[in-house]
Amino acid sequence: MDIATIAGILAGSTVVAIAILIGGDVGTFVNIPSILIVVGGGFAATVIRFPLKNVFQALVLGGKVAFTHKHTDPKTMIDKIAELAEIVRREGPLALDNLEIDDPFLKKGAQFVADGYEPEFIQESLELERDQLLERLDEGQRIYKAIGDAAPAFGMIGTIVGLVQMLSNMEDPSTIGPAMAVALLTTLYGAVIANLVALPISDKLSTKGKITDVSATLTIDGVMQLAAGKNPNLIREMLVAYLPEKARAQVAAEEAQAQPAAT
To answer: What are the residue ranges spanned by the domains of the chain?
Structure first.
């Protein structure tokens, strides 16, 4: 569970709710025509730009990425790959067949090595899976960005509709209030949907894509070294390049402590 997303949405919603409660009746801020204009119009504009099936898939993907946090630390991944390399060196590639590996992408690569597939096949298969995942994340990011762009736009359209209704019926005072409510609430709904939901999730998907790219590429390189039967220490040294500078220094310090003291 990603606490940051939940906390952010709750905090933003609470601030808006408190402002509404301080100012008056909550019912005043509920207007069905305004909701229809913003939600219905924003959804319609999005499905015009993207296939309907992809829109629904992106909505589900965005929810998973925003509210769940499944991320393997690169250093942990490097340690696991080095551990697998040590097993391969001692017992051979077939020893990978019975191991419990939490990360599904690494598990798939290790299974390829255990099954004795050609290195070219292993690399192409893993790179294809990585690229397809990144494509889904990128499309999800673009769809949420489109929703974030469309919601305020339809909020403005609703504002214009409400103003037109108000100005065309100035002789009837009873129509001024509802028309003004539509005019103002559509802008409010559009801004809230865009800035509290759609655009933050779009940015979250973009960040997830970058993290996934680094993690998957690190894993592919590690699996290829496993397939080549490289020394665990050599594999670790090569993969450390994926770590930030601070993490590299930490790894170097840990390796120095692990070395037996010089006599």
So the answer is: 30-243
